[in-house]
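Input for the complex:
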Amino acid sequence: MSHTNHHVPTIVIGRLPLYLRALTQLAVEGRRVTSSQELSEKLGFSSAQIRKDLSYFGEFGKQGTGYEIEFLENALREILQVDRVWNMALVGAGDLGHALANYDGFELRGFRITAIFDSAPAKIGAMLGNWRVLPMDTLRETVRAQKIYLAIIAVPAAAAQAVADELVQGGVRAILNYAPTTLSVPPQIKVFHIDPVAGLQSMTYYL
Amino acid sequence: MSHTNHHVPTIVIGRLPLYLRALTQLAVEGRRVTSSQELSEKLGFSSAQIRKDLSYFGEFGKQGTGYEIEFLENALREILQVDRVWNMALVGAGDLGHALANYDGFELRGFRITAIFDSAPAKIGAMLGNWRVLPMDTLRETVRAQKIYLAIIAVPAAAAQAVADELVQGGVRAILNYAPTTLSVPPQIKVFHIDPVAGLQSMTYYL
DNA sequence: AATCCTTTGTGCTTTTTTTCCCAAGTCTTG
DNA sequence: CAAGACTTGGGAAAAAAAGCACAAAGGATT
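Predicted:
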């Protein structure tokens, strides 16, 4: 079967990291094998959906047994291209930028911040984690020189579009956007938005 | 037409906060009126989808003209129940907790942190923003006494489930979960997950 | 007041996503 | 080694979501 060739729906791709996360958790607990049924209970997706999602990429399980955890973990890492560590630029050295720069959960899951930028003279030059905060006007060339393809925007909404434009100019291809605003970027650039308030608002609807 | 009665798909509810966010932005820019077409360009959803989503709740626009921004904003705030300010508990006073406690973007969009908890003796008693960090073992009763129905979990993954259990015991009905793990809660409790790494991983697939 | 340009709300169609279901294969037990 | 208990992968059906397209109506212009 010619897996991988078909276009895989975005919604499926969005679930793979959650499968991977659950598998890693199981592995840490010392487990060797799991099943779509068990993952289903852990994650809240149906077991059929998990099996079908995986079937877009190949056959990873064994009938009657389930999935060998380490094997499936590695397969998913390869599919998602996180079988390596990606360097990232962080733009914005405020409270959120600090939290992100100090977060130790990136590295094991395929990411690492290697350049930090801010526009405030008071912050430029200061150390944040292992890195010195650089001025915004060096962003484009630094990102290009270091071949950084991923960036995190952690600046106020009003500044976010200008930052995105600079990042794209520097060759960044995917942006994790914490600013509560939509970004306008060329179609080949990926953007993932994180807006906690939007999440909260969609929950209060149900209260 | 008996709007509002039909069950509204979750996916529609998830888009409403984005519509509201865009409308507020337009209002700040001094705009009075907009159209599904303009919102479509700003947000990246089709104009038909925006109109259909809104039609679940009533008729807010005027043919030939579009939508009166302030009117639609207020309607959405009412629908989402953010025409008030919800008190929230924040659990976890680490870097992320600090960033959240100091974030000034909550209040205008319907939320406010009014109680902060941590388990580390070193942090308990310290001030964070306007609030003193309280010990975890006062969580349940404090949340119940203050009638807090929303909470943010900003603790390590390993501690998240226990925190969630306490929150639910205290009467919390919706949780914004920053811990990179699935939470197991009773079905009537809403959980919204924020996992930046999962977002990054779903983007690297395409690089 | 007629014409033209706009834009909504929605019935209908198409596409996407999820679920159902089972043949086929694996493992365990007696 | 036969029987029974599991579990996968995937075709087919069902359900959900998105998009199309247009009647109806507002407003501007002549």
